[in-house]
Amino acid sequence: MRSLLKSQKGTGYFDISVYFIAAMLVIAFFLTVAPIYTQKQQLDTFATQLCRTAEISGRVGEETSERYDELCDQTTLSPEVSWSKTGNVQLGETIQVTLTSTAYIRIGGVANVPVPLTAKASGKSEVYFK
């Protein structure tokens, strides 16, 4: 090992440069993927909070639309929303919301690769309608 370190042949420079380039590629990959992971987490939270609003109000309507607008402003996301039910939801019935959005991975500043993101949340209505 000592003889390899004391060697003056210069092969160590080549090895270190290859390792350095490989490390930079790994870091660049993580910096590209990290924003998509963050956006997925925001979308999951968005779905959970939107579903919770529907649970508390007992319906999918004005309250959920207002909450959607608030969450869009907070997160800068504007996903497509689909509900399992609309209107009043009776006590104990399940409410499901599905949000879909698209994130893009930039490859070398030349191409954008679309990555579809989906978030689902469900809960039970907490309001009894006579």
Number of domains: 1
From the spread of the alpha carbons, the general shape counts as: rod-shaped
Please tell me the overall pLDDT.
90
Task: State the distance separating the first and last CA atoms.
Answer: 84 Å
Q: Residue ranges: pLDDT <50 for 5 or more in a row?
A: none
- Per DSSP, what share of the residues sits in E-state strands of 2 or more residues? 25-35%
| Rg | 25 Å
Number of strands: 5
Could you give a short account of the major beta sheet? Answer: 3 strands, antiparallel
Order of helices and strands: HHEHEEEE
How many separate helices?
A: 3
Helix content: 40-55%
- Structural class of the helix and strand makeup? alpha+beta
- What is the strand arrangement across the widest sheet? 2-4-5
Short description:
It is built from 3 helices and 5 strands, in the order ααβαββββ.
Can you describe what's shown?
A hairpin with a 3-residue loop joins strand 4 and strand 5. The model has no long low-confidence stretch (mean pLDDT 90). The protein is 51% helix and 28% strand. 15% of the residues are buried. The strands form two sheets. It has a three-stranded antiparallel beta sheet with strand order 2-4-5. A two-stranded antiparallel sheet has the order 1-3. It has one domain (10-124). By secondary structure, the protein is of the alpha+beta class. The longest helix is centred in the N-terminal third of the chain and has 47 residues, at 11-57. The chain crosses the membrane at residues 12-37. This is DUF4320 family protein. Keywords: Membrane, Transmembrane, Transmembrane helix.
